[in-house]
Predict the structure.
Amino acid sequence: MRIAHGLALVLVMVIGACSPRPVAMRAEPVPEATIVPVFGVAGRQLDTGESLFGNDRPRDVTPFRIDVSVPPTHRPGRIAWPKVEPDAATDFVVADAGVYPDMRAMVRDIRRSSPERETLLFVHGYNTTFSEAVFRTAQIVTDFEVTMPAVVFAWPSAGDPRGYLYDRDSVLFARDDLERTLRALLSRPGERVFLMAHSMGAHLTMEALRQIALKGDRALLDRLSGVVLVAPDIDPDIFSRQAAAIGTLPQPFLIFITQRDRALSLSGFITGRKPRLGVLAEPGQIDRSDVQVIDVSDLAEGGPALNHSVPFTSPTAISLLNSVMTRAEREGRGLLRAMADHLPLIPTGPY
C-alpha cells in the first residue's frame, strides 16, 4: 500500500512536469488594486518562469525589486495567475520592476521605503520558479497584513518536479548567498530580520544559520527576531545536528507541520521512507525545549498544493493565524501563549 501510494505521487510529478507553469506578466494596475513591493535576492537568472533543470547556476546573485499588483478580487491563500492577457482587475501582475547594482543599494531603498527596522525574509521551497517565489511573497504579505518590508531569497531551484536532487544540491550552493543576504539586511544598528522558510528552503535556512554559528557570530544570530519553518523538508536527524551546531535558537522558533502533507510523503519515499521533519507528530521527536511545533493538519484543504503549504494557502488557516496574532498583540501576550489557546502544540523534549 505504501509503495503504491509513492508510485502514484511519482506519477503526479511526471504529469505535472509536462504542464506549463504560470508566468508573472506586466500590466497597468487599476486604482482598486494593492501594490506590494517585493524586494529580493535572486541566485538565478531573472527569467520568465521557465525551468532551470539541468542549467548552470549563476555565480553571482542579483538584488531586485518587483512591485506586485494584487487585484481587488483577491481571495486569501490564492494567487490569481493571468490566463492569456493579464488583467490587473482580476490577476496578480507586475506593476514595475528593476534591479540594483548591489545589495547595499537594495537595503538603502528598503529603508527609504519603510520606517520599519525589521524585515521579513522569505525563503521559498523546492520546485519553485522565480515568478512563483515573487508572487507567493506578495500573497503572504497581503493575507497576513505584513507591515514590515518583505524580501524573498530566490535560490536556484530548478522549478521542475523532476529536479528534487538538483534542488538539494542548490541548497548547498546557495547557503553562502543566504548568509550574505542576512548580513546585508542586518548591516546597521537596530536592524532585525524575521526569517520564514518553506519546504526545502527550511533546509537552506538551517544550513545558513549553522554556518553563521560555526563562525562564532552569535551577535548576528541574536538579531533574528524569530524563525518559522513551514513544512520543513529536512531529515529529522540532520535537523538535530544543525540545531546542536547553532546552539541557542532564535526565539520564537516555530515549526508548522501537516501530517497530511503528500509532498513530504513523496520526499520521504525518495530519501529512504523516513518521515521528514514537516510531518513529525509524536511528542519528544524534536528533543529541544526552544522549538515549538504547531500541527495544522486539521486546517488542510487539499487541492493541487498537496497540503504542502497549509499556513499560506488554506483560507481557514490564514484566518485563524491572523486572529491569533491580532489577539496576542491586543492583549500584550506572547505569540506562543496565544497560539497555545487556539492551535494544537506538540510537546518537544528537554533541551
